[in-house]
Amino acid sequence: SEVPVLTIDGPSGSGKGTISRMVARRLGWHYLDSGALYRAVGVAAAWGDLDLGDAGALVRCTFDTAIDFREDASGELRVLVNGNDATDELRTETAGAVASAIAAMPEVRTALMDRQRAFRQPPGLVTDGRDMGTVIFPDAPFKVFLTASAGERAERRYKQLKDKGVSVTLDGLLREILARDARDANRAVAPLRPAGDAVHIDTTGIGIDEVVERVLNVVGA
Ligand code: C5P
Question: Where does the secretion signal sit in this chain (predicted)?
Answer without folding.
Answer: none
